[in-house]
UniProtKB/TrEMBL annotation:
It comes from the Bacteria. The lineage of its organism: Bacteria, Pseudomonadati, Pseudomonadota, Betaproteobacteria, Burkholderiales. Keywords: Signal. It comes from Limnobacter profundi. This is DUF192 domain-containing protein. Residues 1-31 form the signal peptide.
Length: 163
C-alpha cells in the first residue's frame, strides 16, 4: 500500500514538472518581444524594381516592425505608413537582421536611406518630413543604385493610416 501512494504522487509530480517545463519554454520563446502577426502585403515599385511589401500602417504594426524575424525575402520588405508627414525615426532593438530603410515623403520621393545594424539602439531618422519608410535587407538599395531622389510607387489608398 505504501508503494502505491508513492507511485501516485510520483506520477502527479512528473506531470507537474512537464507542465512547468512547457510553460517555461513558452516564456523563453517570447522573451525577446512580440512577433509581428500576419500583415497584408502589396506590390510596390522602387524606381523600376518590384517589391513585395508587408504593410505596417497601425500603431502596433509600426511598433513591432520586423522585430524577431530571422530572415526577409530577397525582394521583400516592410512599408511603414505614418499618420503624419514629419521627421520619422527608427531603431533596431529586438531586430535580428541588418536592414536599410528608405524614408520618403507623401509623394514617394526618397529623402534619405539609412543603414541599420541588427540589435542596436542607434536612432535613424528621416532628413525631412517623411510619410513613408521602406525597410529592406541590408544592401538592397545600394546594389540597385537607388539613392535619395528616387521614387517609391505606392497605391494612393496606402497613404491612409489606421489606428
Amino acid at each position: 500500500m505504501h508503494f502505491d501512494h508513492i507511485n501516485k504522487y510520483c506520477t502527479t509530480f512528473r506531470l507537474t514538472l512537464v507542465t512547468a517545463a512547457l510553460g517555461l519554454a513558452a516564456c523563453i520563446s517570447n522573451a525577446a518581444g512580440p512577433a509581428q502577426s500576419q500583415l497584408p502585403t502589396l506590390q510596390i515599385r522602387v524606381g523600376q524594381h518590384d517589391v513585395k511589401a508587408e504593410l505596417a500602417n497601425t500603431d502596433l504594426s509600426r511598433q513591432i516592425g520586423l522585430m524577431n524575424r530571422k530572415e526577409l525575402g530577397g525582394n521583400s520588405g516592410m512599408l511603414f505608413v505614418f499618420k503624419r508627414s514629419e521627421t520619422q525615426c527608427m531603431w533596431m532593438k529586438n531586430t535580428l537582421i541588418d536592414l536599410d530603410v528608405a524614408f520618403a515623403d507623401a509623394n514617394g520621393k526618397i529623402l534619405n536611406i539609412e543603414q541599420m545594424k541588427a540589435g542596436t539602439t542607434d536612432i535613424h531618422c528621416s532628413s525631412g518630413n517623411a510619410k513613408l519608410a521602406l525597410e529592406m535587407n541590408h544592401g538592397w538599395f545600394s546594389t540597385r543604385g537607388i539613392d535619395a531622389g528616387e521614387k517609391l510607387h505606392v497605391p494612393e489608398q496606402v497613404l491612409e493610416t489606421r489606428e
